[in-house]
Design a protein that fits this description.
- The complex is a heterodimer of chains A (110) and B (114).
- In chain A, 0% of the residues lie in helices and 55% in strands.
- With 110 residues, chain A is mainly beta.
- In chain A, the strands form two sheets. In chain A, strands 2, 4, 5, 9, 10 and 11 form a six-stranded mixed sheet that branches. Chain A has a five-stranded antiparallel sheet with strand order 1-3-8-7-6, with no helix packed on it.
- In chain A, a hairpin with a 4-residue loop joins strand 7 and strand 8.
- Chain B has 114 residues and is mainly β.
- Helix content of chain B is 0%, strand content 56%.
- Chain B contains no helices and eleven strands.
- The N and C termini of chain B lie far apart (32 Å).
- Classes of the chains: A mainly beta (110), B mainly beta (114).
- At the A-B interface, strand 4, strand 5, strand 9 and strand 10 of A face strand 5 and strand 10 of B.
Chain lengths: 110, 114
Amino acid sequence: QKEVEQDPGPLSVPEGAIVSLNCTYSNSAFQYFMWYRQYSRKGPELLMYTYSSGNKEDGRFTAQVDKSSKYISLFIRDSQPSDSATYLCAMSGGANNLFFGTGTRLTVIP
Amino acid sequence: ETGVTQTPRHLVMGMTNKKSLKCEQHLGHNAMYWYKQSAKKPLELMFVYNFKEQTENNSVPSRFSPECPNSSHLFLHLHTLQPEDSALYLCASSPGGDPSYEQYFGPGTRLTVT
């Protein structure tokens, strides 16, 4: 079983739509949860970082962590064409490990 | 230069060649990492260096040899690679020495092994 499962998509939405991206995981020791955004021909950049359960909001982006269900989500409100990228979830239990999902490719159509 | 830089951006090499990838970070961070990114696979953490000391080696084949002469520079020496080693190799840095810290990635080196 993979440590982290993420639907690879691709996902296409019209501009202005609400986007929901999700990952599930199997290791209950994970405490640090991240979302990275990767544009074509670029390295990933950190978008959201949360510790343990709960919600975190930053502008149009909201990250949710549900440790009881081993499920994390990233919501993008009022999506823009500039949000078109691959979104990677990542999580860690500390101790020098970090596990990524395969990434979901998102296209926002003007 | 700002952030994390990597050279070369593209590399084609034969299976008998020896080459090196270079990474430099201008962020004053203490930790640096090498990752492998293959199509439709999760990003794989290969090596972790904290204050120039290697703290993690995730069962990477010996044909990949890292070197970290100081906290700002990281190399990945390559020799006798296999075609399945073709991938995007990403370097990252972070303020602290654990991958759970926020990491800053370079643009990557696209490696093709022929």
